Amino acid sequence: MNRLTTSKGEYELARYPEHPRDPFRAWDAADEYLLRQLEGIDGATPVELTGTVVVVGDRWGALSTVLAGHRPVQITDSYLAQRATLANLVRNGHDEDAVRLLSARDTPPDRIDVLLVRVPKSLALLEDQLHRLAPAVHAGTVVIGTGMVKEIHTSTLKLFERIIGPTRTSLAVKKARLIFCTPDPALARTPSPWPYRYELPGDVGAVSGRTVVNHAGIFCAERLDIGTRFFLNHLPERTGRDRVVDLGCGNGVVGTSAALANPGAAVTFVDESYQAVASAEATFRANVGADAEARFLVGDGTADLGPGSVDLVLNNPPFHSHLATTDATARNMFHGARAVLRQGGELWVVGNRHLGYHTQLRRIFGNCTTVAGDPKFVVLRAVKR
Ligand SMILES: C[S@@+](CC[C@H](N)C(=O)[O-])C[C@H]1O[C@@H](n2cnc3c(N)ncnc32)[C@H](O)[C@@H]1O
């Protein structure tokens, strides 16, 4: 647990899921810079936090927790960010409803008076979110963005310019920068270009030539990932009633492939990104059928699935968490998969060869077979015994 010190006091903050040995803090210099700006520290003019205050893209709820007294609306695409926010609010003596949590898929408030944007890793997500928020912004709305210098590019500023209004940046402080944007109500409103659809190549098994639907900000939203491509060519061939989980489903291409290959499969798509689960649902419905059996869950790994309730888990795990490389999520997913698999059930994983997932799988399952490999990727199978 780490403490964030602000002029308003000290806050105990943690990421979610919380790990006692988590090397990462739940905030960074970009969050601190924004908070200092709002409070009018270092010669800045303090910002009056009145009316509807909206915080977009708060990574782990640090901004929302410090600003909880202003009852902000938080908008995020991340279920984990929402869980972190709730835990951090309670940890710091607030009620869970001190912050109104909206996902990136929800309708934003009609009118926004203060808009604070933690610039996301994905430019596409920022573009989509600004398009959705622009109608609620008025000439008097205070709009401030924040991010680490390496996250803010000319293209980032151009998005604010094009969708909200004239934009400038602050000096960099501790490798963080602020973005000041003045809303221009006369700007022509254009619709978001998302979702984006692309056609799959002809050599990727059951989904060959099919169309994939991608909402903004999801993993590989504009082209098929090469690891996923390798996985699609080495998925298990199964028949009959099969309870399958596409764990970390992204646009749902893996689970959709399993459903097309085996009409007896009942696929559950899970992701911590609301945009991903919406994409998976759209991909599945477009390719398998409007009434075909499937479940679409936003959640943390397999946490919402029953023990022993699954025959097969398919997983292309993430190895990044907000710009930091980490294998903690993959490890959690493997443990979670084991818990929900029935005896004899299987976890199939694709990963970069150098990530060494086979060592973790052997430790967790007591076995691991390499099903396929090329110089870059491996597909691994672990059986619950
Ligand atoms: C490498 S991508 C794979 C996406 C898709 N299966 C594919 O192969 O194209 C990993 C996915 O895991 C999701 N993810 C990350 N952490 C998660 C968690 N704790 N629970 C569920 N999904 C998570 C990410 O949002 C991302 O969509």
TrEMBL record:
The UniProt entry, under Pfam families, shows: MTS, RLMG_N
Methyltransferase small domain location, by residue? 211-381
A single GO BP: methylation
Write the Enzyme Commission number(s) for this entry.
2.1.1.174
Reaction(s) catalysed by this chain's protein: guanosine(1835) in 23S rRNA + S-adenosyl-L-methionine = N(2)-methylguanosine(1835) in 23S rRNA + S-adenosyl-L-homocysteine + H(+)
> Per its record, how is this protein called by name?
Ribosomal RNA large subunit methyltransferase G
Main function: Specifically methylates the guanine in position 1835 (m2G1835) of 23S rRNA.
Keywords of the record, alphabetical order, are: Cytoplasm, Methyltransferase, rRNA processing, S-adenosyl-L-methionine, Transferase
The subcellular location is: Cytoplasm
Matching entries from InterPro entries are given as:
DNA_methylase_N6_adenine_CS, RLMG, RlmG_N, RsmC/RlmG, SAM-dependent_MTases_sf, Small_mtfrase_dom
Q: Which residues form the RlmG N-terminal domain?
A: 1-184
Provide the GO MF annotations for this entry: methyltransferase activity
The family this protein is said to belong to: Belongs to the methyltransferase superfamily. RlmG family.
Q: Read off the SUPFAM superfamilies from this record.
A: S-adenosyl-L-methionine-dependent methyltransferases
Give the chief site where it resides.
cytoplasm
